[in-house]
Amino acid sequence: MRRPDAVVIPEAVLDEDGLAVDATQALAAIEIVSPSNPSNDYDAKPADYPAMGIPLCLIVDPRTGTIEVHSDPCKGRYAQKEPYIFGDAVPFGVWTVETGEFRRYGREG
């Protein structure tokens, strides 16, 4: 069981009973890289999410100002990984994530 920092789900899922969401209903998972355990966000979670049936994963790293979009689950892993930097308009499935206001850890402005 994994708990993403944020998850994109269809709104109708919120009307279902229970405290958890079946991972196969998730459209995307979003991770903000932890300064204390970055390997969990870069290695473990992107290995687990495609195996759970989550089609997209966005990893935002405020330590370095970088972003990764993982997509195309195939045989339990993501087949595609696209790199971006803070300030890019990041294509993420059917969405575009505007990152111009993203902030880095320990940085002002």
UniProtKB/TrEMBL annotation:
It comes from the Bacteria. CDD domains: DUF820-like. Residues 2-84 form the Putative restriction endonuclease domain. This is Putative restriction endonuclease domain-containing protein.
